Amino acid sequence: MNNLILPTKNTWCPGCGNFGIQRALGEAINKTDKNRTVLVTGIGCHGKMADYLNINSVYALHGRAIPVAEGVKMGNGDLQVVCCVGDGDTYNEGISHLLHAAKRNSDITVLVHDNRVFALTVNQPTLTSPKGFVSTTTPKGKKEEALNPLEVMLSVGATFVARSFAGKPEHLERIILEGMRHPGFSFIEILQPCVAWYSTMEIYNERAYEMEKEFLPLAEAKEKAQEWDYNNGERIPLGIFYKKEKEGFDKQLEKSFFVDTEKILEKSK
Ligand SMILES: Cc1ncc(C[n+]2csc(CCOP(=O)(O)OP(=O)(O)O)c2C)c(N)n1
Question: Which residues in the chain show pLDDT less than 70?
Answer without folding.
Answer: 1, 258-260
